[in-house]
Amino acid sequence: MRFGGHTMPARIQVPAEPIGPVDLLPVLHEFNDALIGAAVEQVESQGRRVSCRIGCGACCRQIVPISETEARYLAGLIAAMPEDRKQRVTARFAQAVETLAASGLLERLRPEPPSDPAERNRLGLEYFRQGLACPFLEDESCSIHAHRPASCREYLVTSPAKNCSTPRADNITMVELPAKVSSVLYRFGDGRGEEPARWMALPLLLEWAAEHREDAQPAIPGPELFASFMNKLVKKPGQAA
Predict the structure, then answer these.
(1) Alpha carbons 28 and 31: distance in angstroms, whole number
(2) Under a CB-based contact definition with an 8 Å cutoff, are residues 188 and 220 in contact?
(3) d(CA 241, CA 230)
(4) Secondary structure of 73-122 in the HEC alphabet?
(5) 23/19 Cα distance (integer angstroms)
(6) How many whole angstroms separate alpha carbon 188 and alpha carbon 192?
(7) CA separation (Å) from 8 to 2, 117, 196, 226, 229?
(8) In terms of Cα–Cα distance, which of 47, 32, 44 is closest to 151?
(9) Given this model, what pLDDT does residue 241 score?
């Protein structure tokens, strides 16, 4: 596969039988990690270094946008946790929602975040000023690192890590990615990528998953589902799949 001038060999294995987007997500995590790894290699070949490190959790206090598919996946991950850990994590989610409600931000995130980019930017800055940690953050590190959302995987910087505590357009240098898996996930709930983009702030995933538990899910043969995702990932506007 060729992305942004970089050729990446890849071997992907998916079930032949019909599966849903949630079932495909672990495969997409692996693919996304390989794609990001290729981008990081390119950055490092230019003499830059990714400054993100264990214990640097400033970005975990930003709005973490997740897709509906990721909300279902993470809700299932929490449900499968040992009971004591599940109670602790669930309590942190409840506290996060209470904090958002008290700050007045919750009503601006429900039922959907604002579509206007300028308003989203203002909301993001106000959210960050709350200092609200992701419910999965423990000891300033991600407690579900292997299962973290695509938007978290894709947030990598080469600017000094301390700058992430006071992020501005002039002090944060992101690693540029040739394609973003997250951008397709936001509209892939139908298994085709034909839906409008939809996302939610991560702290709202448990309440969303509870409300949509009975929703019908698409079931598409694994290779066809993966091919649909890849077509959306690499397709340029106006270009045939």
Answers:
(1) 5
(2) no
(3) 9
(4) HHHHHHHCCCHHHHHHHHHHHHHHHHHHHHHCCHHHHCCCCCCCHHHHHH
(5) 6
(6) 6
(7) 6, 33, 30, 17, 17
(8) 32
(9) 44
Q: Are 150 and 28 in contact (CB under 8 A)?
A: yes
pLDDT bin (cut points 50, 70, 90) of residue 56 is confident
On average, the pLDDT of the chain sits at 91
- CA dihedral (110, 111, 114, 119) in degrees, to 10, reads -10
What's the confidence (pLDDT) of residue 165? 84
Report the relative pairing of strands 2-3 and 6-7 from DSSP bridges.
Answer: antiparallel
**Amino acid, res. 42:** Q
Q: What angle do CA 46, 48, 51 make, to 5 degrees?
A: 155
Q: Please compute, for residue 203, the number of CA atoms within 13 A of its CA located in the half-sphere on the CB side.
A: 26
Q: What is the pTM of this model?
A: 0.91
Sorted by sequence, the CB contacts under 8 Å of residue 85 that are 6+ apart come out as none
- CA distances from residue 123 to 49, 110, 117 in whole angstroms, order as listed: 30, 12, 10
Confidence band of 108 (pLDDT split at 50, 70, 90): very high
Alpha-carbon distance of 14 to 144, in angstroms, equals: 23
CA distance 237 to 241: 10
